Hints:
heterodimer, A: alpha/beta, TIM Barrel, 8 strands, 11% strand, B: alpha/beta, Rossmann fold, three-stranded mixed β-sheet, 6 helices
Amino acid sequence: MHKETYWNSESFRLKVGLAEMLKGGVIMDVVDADQAKIAEDAGACAVMALERVPADIRRDGGVARMSDPEMIDRIMKAVSIPVMAKVRIGHFAEAQIIQELGVDFIDESEVLTPADPHNHVYKFAFKTPFVCGATNLGEALRRIGEGAALIRTKGEAGTGDVIEAVRHLRAINKEMATVTQLDDTELMAEAKRLQAPYELVCFVHEHGKLPVPKFTAGGIATPADASMLMQMGAESVFVGSGIFKSEDPARRAKAIVKAVTYYDKPAELLKISSGLGSAMSGLSVGELAEGQRLAVRGW
Amino acid sequence: MPIGILALQGAVEPHHLKLKSMGVEAVSVRTAEELRNCQGLIIPGGESTTFLKLIHENNLLQPILTFAERQSVWGVCAGSILMAKEVENPPQESLSLVPIRVRRNAYGRQNESFIAVFGLNLPGGSPIRQEGVFIRAPQVVEWEDNVAVLAKYEDKPVALQYRHHLVTTFHPELSESPALHHYFLSLCNSDR
């Protein structure tokens, strides 16, 4: 399909439509059917099926790839909510396989080892919607320009440290605010500066928001983390290692779901945050060596 | 009084935008207090299992049922699952406001989501064409005789009315036409 007609196409409307349905919710990483059931029972609006949560990928090292479709299929059969799965950046064959399996959303994720040093997947070619990570507005618009139906902050996955998710969300918000203030004459130069498609820069200029929903991910470990990012304009929250690496996953999962709904009500959040057991121990992003950072993956 | 949109999770914003474009005041509802000040309630699309957990966790079940005795409730997609008397695939509890049996994800997963156009017969108006955005949509598989079928797609009802309540298995908030939002307003405003 030609890109100019894509934005109003049925295909794109259906992709963004599902992203709309996921708003105000929590998408949880799960590695098997039992965890998927726990997530569903806690009120997750979707699950991300993967063989290892980011904290374990980080610990194990080596090449991280698409999960075994058989394992993803078991999770799809175990729950009634949408199921997402990850593919490597640029690995369109993994994406074709995952689409064939029938997952509801594909995450082209920096948590896995990138497969293409220059290009992301051409997402217009797929029926299944894609979510992609971004660290700033230019990156978000490039991914949307390739057909992503949902943007999430990258954060720094598998750390339990929320600082990078905050950095990325603030960067996107600040750059969008700047774009809305510009004169029409300045938009082409801004597109050049952001390295983003001109027509998408114009969209942000006109509407003050992305043309697709904007979620947050990467290092979220507590109800307070979720609340903070929602207050900063995230429309939903992905929680990776933060739930099943904590002391009491079922309880924490429920608490984070509730915290996303009542993100702006401190009296509720006080109750929600109390007596949850310990959060995942985590890694401070400041202590990570440059080579251990996942957020720098992606182009 | 404003129209309430249940805002526990899901596609709340598109209903806000639609009602705003119609010049109608709307509020997000997350507590029983917020519900009390509303005239009519929209239960939007999203995940019905998530809605159920949060309705129970926050003691909203009885307030919604009491509200529904006199006020109109409109269930959209996941909302229609909540309003059904019976749910299958898998079976789950519900508010049981409308005597229909609903099958979750009846058309399949996201790859089977679709947009279709069909006839819509709103009481008091002439038949119109309505676009339906069906996203992992449920299907009404059984309905009692006293439920009015307002629209069908492939022989299955996709818009229904029972007493002062409305149910659609598709997402009118994601289409241009405000016809169903206008009709819901008329239900909210009618004397009971």
